Structure formats: structure tokens, C-alpha cells
Amino acid sequence: MSTFAPIENASSFRRMAAAMWRAPSDPSIYGSMDVDATEPLAFLAEHQRVTGVRLTVTHLVARAVALALHDQPEINGKIRFGGRLEQRSTVDVFVTVATEGNKDLSGARIDRADEKPLAALATELAERVRKIRGGEDAAYQQSRRALRQVPWWLARAATRLSDVLVNELHLDLSAHGMPSDPFGSAIVTSVGMFGIDSAFAPFVPLARCPMLILVPEIRPRPWAVGDRVEVRPVLRLCATFDHRLIDGAAAGRFANRLTQLFATPQLLA
Questions:
Q1: Residue 86: in which H helix or E strand, if any?
Q2: CA distance linking residue 88 with residue 75, whole number of Å
Q3: φ, ψ for residue 171, nearest 5 deg
Q4: 269 residues of the chain, pLDDT tens digit each
Q5: Is 84 in contact with 170 (CB distance < 8 Å)?
Q6: Strands 104-110 and 93-99
Q7: Long-range contacts of 73-76 (CB under 8 A, 24+ apart)
Q8: Which of these CATH numbers, 3.50.30.20, 3.30.559.10, 1.10.10.60, 2.40.50.100, describes 4-135+184-268?
Q9: Cβ neighbours of residue 160 closer than 8 Å, sequence gap 6 or more
Q10: Per-domain residue ranges for the chain?
């Protein structure tokens, strides 16, 4: 689990932005980038053949996001107490999963995702998802029971109290389905199984993470190869960034690092 330390050398803009905006209803940056998925898809197939671990594009994106955050630690942050900028000590990626026959959503936080090989990340996520969908995840079941017991007119207050306990005070209430810092450094959500090729999502105020990455469906698109155009499988990654922590320049560096990693997917192993 991450520990946190105050960011003492933050720029004047970041300090002002952290105090100026409330969490995070306004300060959102939206952006998308197209990735030639030819090499990543071939890499996934070969990696799965060698290791026997079932892999998906979502696993690859989660791993790439973790490594890009590792290389750019200044954006792996969090805002607490209405404006204090803090930097996470670990890279923890939250991957959402559909439950109850796609009628509900949950997810699993993969701690220290930048330190885990791709196969280990995929295996851990698969086991977590199996437990959640099979009703064996105690924290998920506890949180569902707690939510069902709260009347609608208390839901907002209960959510705000949860936010204070797990994000402001960093209390570990896992026994009640509320671990501290529940969503980690980034949220990765796959929507490709629904046939969606472009989509953006709003921040969940309870999440307190600086970015949310949507993984749509890979589709054939025209792609420039030198001076000719070919039809290639293209993944359009869609991102929402918290502008209080990530400005345009930082988002650009992050996107460039993702491009490098997908161009050489062996780096993600």
C-alpha cells in the first residue's frame, strides 16, 4: 500500500490549481491517441503461447500505464484536504470489471503494477475477478451489503463519509469493504466488448486518482506507413486527466511514453 509525502517543490500553478478547483468536477482534460495494434496483438499471442497465461489488450494497457507512471512519478499524485498535493510512493492500477452479468461494476486494484511482469499482473487480476464474480471476495461482498443497507436519502452523506475516511484520513476499512486509497494511481476500464471504439468517462470523486483510461474496441483503420496508406488494427486509447495534477505538457509526455511502449511491446513483458 502506498505511503504519501507532501510535495514541497510543486509549481505555483499546481498549488493554485489544487486549491482553486474542487475534487474533480471541473479540472478534466480529455484526449485520445491512436496506436497501431499490429505488433501488440502479435506480442500478446506469442506471450500467451509461451506462458500459457490468458492475456488481453486491457492487461497490456494496464501494464503500459503503470510503466509510464513509473517513468513520470511527478504525475502519480493525489490531492487531499481540499488542496494539498501529495505524491504516491507506489504505482497501483485499478482495473474495472463487469459483474452480475454486466449489470454492475466493480474492480481490482493491482498494487505495485509497475514492478510485476505482465503474466503476473494478468494472473493476479484474473484471480481477483474470479473471486469477485464468484462471490468469494469478502471486501466486495461487504461493500455491496453496506450500500444496500443505506437508504437513498443517506447515500450522498455515506459516500462523503467514506471519502473522508479512506482518502483524507487513509483509514484501512477493508473489513467493511473500504480499503484506504481504493483506486490507486490510475483507473483502466475496458469498453471494447461493447463494440465501442471511442469513449470518455468522468472522474469518480471517491477515486482521487489523476487519470482514467478507457480501452475501446480495436478496429481496422487507415494508417500511414511511410508514403503509403495501409489498413491496420488500431487501438484508440481515450483518457481523462485531472488538470490539477497533470497539465498538457505532462499529458503529452505520458502519451509519448505509451506510444514507445506499444511500438516495442516486449518492454511490457
A1: strand 84-88
A2: 9
A3: -80, 140
A4: 788 888 888 777 677 777 766 665 567 899 999 999 999 999 999 999 999 999 999 999 999 999 999 999 999 999 998 889 999 999 999 999 877 776 677 889 999 999 999 999 999 999 998 988 887 877 777 777 777 787 888 888 888 888 899 899 988 888 777 788 889 999 999 998 889 989 998 888 788 999 999 999 999 999 999 999 999 999 999 999 999 999 999 999 999 999 999 999 999 99
A5: no
A6: antiparallel
A7: 74/250, 75/210, 75/211, 75/245, 75/246, 75/250, 75/254, 76/185, 76/210
A8: 3.30.559.10
A9: none
A10: 4-135+184-268, 137-182
Mark out the alpha helices in 74-217 (DSSP H runs). 118-133, 138-149, 152-163
The set of cell numbers assigned to 145 is: 451489503
Q: Are strands 186-190 and 211-215 parallel, antiparallel or unpaired?
A: parallel
Reading the block at residue 267, the C-alpha cell is: 518492454
